[in-house]
Amino acid sequence: MSNIKPVKIWKLDLDQADDLPASDSFLFPEVGGKRKTYLCGHSLGLQPKSAKASVENELKIWHELAVEGHFKAPSPWVHYLDPLHDMMSGLVGALKSEIVIMNSLTANIHFLLAGFYKPNGMQTKILMDSPAFPSDIYALRSHLKVRGASEGDLIFWQPNAQTGFFEIDDFEQLIRDHQQEISLIFIAGLHYLNGQLFDIAKLTKLAHQYDILIGFDLAHAAGNVILNVHDWQVDFACWCTYKYLNGGPGSLGACFIHKKHHHLSDFFQGWWGNSLENRFDMKPDFTPASGALAWQLSNPPIIALAPLKASLEIYHQYGMQKLRAKSKLLTAYLEAILLELESAKFEIKTPKDPEARGAMLCLHCKDEGKDIFELIEQHSIVVDYRKPNTIRVAPNPLYNSFNDCYLFTQALKITIKA
Ligand SMILES: Cc1ncc(COP(=O)(O)O)c(C=O)c1O
What we know:
This protein has 418 residues and is of the alpha/beta class. The protein has helices at residues 6-16, 50-65, 69-72, 81-92, 105-116, 134-146, 168-178, 200-209, 276-279, 302-318, 320-341, 369-377, 402-417, and strands at 26-27, 30-31, 34-35, 37-38, 47-48, 99-102, 125-129, 154-157, 182-188, 213-217, 236-239, 253-257, 346-348, 361-365, 381-382, 384-386, 390-393. α5 runs parallel beside α6, α7 runs parallel beside α8 (200-209) and α11 (320-341) runs parallel beside α13 (402-417).
């Protein structure tokens, strides 16, 4: 039985939620004209209502100005990313010059590895979390392969057998055991399958004590938790923008490259990474744009970026501090009412400490998780299921309410008693 009192949490919410975002800034899926309870923003964020106007605006400019939109639009396309980089840097605690929005997440993992993974002599191995999101392991493995290392040159940081969570002591032990062989560390910031938020500052400090570079996949952390990647001295990071950041299905990825690495020149280049002064000279010389912009490859897809712009504007309006404060309350409330169910049919696998998790709770089902998931769906509740038995639920402070959490637990209650 939980000793957290849901009632107390409700009160806290009412006191603090006055100027928090309203769900009416977003469009919800519906069934039979009735809004579904959407708790799946960790997978695909909802559409901001302002996204449509943002896209239509760029379509109109394309219609009216065509190629001249690059330089003559009210927000010229050649500078379109500028305000997005501004807002994104604020969200993750980076300098604006350390951010570039481009490509997709997996593509960016490859491009960042091209610049940061430098196998040298005995130092060929990459330390990563395991299980990791499959795309991350495919990307790391393929780099090992094409750079002449062995595909098996991966060292895995795994959940501790006693606690069930990733422990920093185990991480340090792995570095100590393999310090002569590790070339790079690349891990998640917030784990996609158990919802554990890693202590990114501490992990980075440890890696640097052993002179090892460290990068993070922040797919589940960006827009979800407070990040200070610049001050934490993280070497590099990347994330997608379609989860908490509501940029739309398959929306572009983002990269962070710490200022201390802006002198690097051996990374993969494209014409859009050329400084603006030289970009249109069409010469073979590459004069890098300043900072992370030098890593940009291509002409950015304006229509695809328009929904992300709309969403970042909403984030910018409220700020991460306020959103995270509401998020902690929502998730604590969800946890408290789930614990009240006291069912042997599931267990919460996410850390109890609010500082060691984001919005998402991962439920480990004892029986067939898929059956439970499908029954919950019948109550117009959208969560997600990961094989073999994990159901992930994430109240997003931008558009979810305490009532959404309550409706989910009621549906789960009916389902597990059925
Ligand atoms: C942790 C993590 N890494 C990588 C990916 C792959 O992202 P993409 O399909 O944008 O390359 C995802 C997608 O959900 C993810 O959650």
